[in-house]
Amino acid sequence: MILAFANLSWPVFADALALGGIYALMAVGIGLVFGVLRLVNFAYGQLMMAGAFALAYGDQWGLPNWLSILFCFGVVLALSALMDRLVFRPLRTHSPAVMLVATFAVAFVLQNIALIAWGSFGKTAGSLAVWQAPWDIHGVYIRKIAIIAVGTAALCLLLLQLLLTRTPVGLQMRAASMDFRTARLLGVRANRVIGGAVLISGLLAGVATVMLSVEQPQITSTWALPETIYVLMGVVLGGLNRPIPATLGGFTIGFAFGLLGGILPSNQSQYLPSFIFAAVIVVLLVRPNGLFTRGGAAVERV
Amino acid sequence: MTALAVEKLSVRYGAVEAVRGLSLEVKPGQIVGLIGPNGAGKSSTLHAIMGSAPVVGGDVRLDGSSILGRRPEDVARRGVALVPEGRRIFGELTVEENLQLGLAARTKRLNGGGLAGAYELFPILREFRTRHAGALSGGQQQQLAIGRALASDPSVLLLDEPSLGLAPKIVDVVFEALSRIRDAGLAVLLVEQRAQRTVALADESHVLANGELRLTLGPQDAGDTDRLVKAYLA
Fold it and tell me: What ipTM was reported for this prediction?
């Protein structure tokens, strides 16, 4: 284990940062919707899976990359809007447990549709594989996707932060996630805030899909499912109710997976999820409100 | 001319009838008090007006047209602002951000200085505008809650026990502000526990018990403690 750290190198570090960035985007996408709906969207990974199949079709039809990425975003956004209309809105006044189970149902329905439609081997989204090629940075070879993912994630998070802190709609979203009832009494339109959160969450899912498809071009019905579970863990680890801690939590998990996955020999790295799960349990026992929240802050106000 | 009219309003939570056939009116430039013991249905009345309580009968009219069955955000956007019980300010946001949230209900385009009115009424809010609202004292938070409601430029202001838990000196500040708000031409419906002060301030005060209107008092009755006590115990 100690010896394994001898394998640490700049490319491994860059890949870990990239994975952390992708997970951070997914975490903030899940966290935003949780903020306004008190709903943990377990079907987030299936949204991404659908987008990844769109990329695979773009590849198959020989679309230019920008067009397949656009197609991917279209599919993800349309599906998340549909989920909001058909599942989230009708169930909004129900208990969080009902909504969680509903998202489980949506997740399994989508997964099985994909399994029926494309079989267990799925399809390949290979047109962005050019990003796998390394850039030579002063003799250190770093894959383009690592740099693109880190840059894109940082840009998205920056834009989101500006939106949340500098615009009226961002302020309304933050207020709604703190106390929805009072926000509505002040004239904050529930549907608009929820629609906005779902839209942004979908955009982030689209970005994460494109990045992750470069890392994992074989698209199957369970594509992005393990990642979603890791990210959910990261979100809880960071602090579910707050966007920045949730993002940091997602990043931490992704970074840890990337780093340990990169430096451990494969006969050890197969146990990696178990070790990380155990570490998360220990952290939550010590800091139940989340790793990155200030102590004593109430997680859920009633 | 009536700004807000409540007609034979009934509110029911499951088997509990919180308000029974209540009628009242508030005109612009008028404060109407709603007093009575705990559980009399005062807060339920305010929430029924806002569209956040289950109304089973009657009507709520704003400038003559019914607003019954509308969502709280739509009622707010039509010019009814609520200062909720317990203030409900956003402690993690700054004072100014809290006030800006009040602008959410504005449908007219802002002609500059949207928060000027609130700052003028409560100068302390301008002084502390970059602080987190959670760091303010209870009295300052109450001023913020009222300022936030006024930022929406409402025609009707509903207040749910604004003096609750405040020091007497701060209660003076709040009641003084209410009379200035009345002078500005707003229709104010004030739910209060401090019966005597409310009766003295308001143009008329309704005593509510068990969800029903028991008695209506004018400012001249403020000294008549016997009548008040009787109304409470009736």
Answer: 0.91
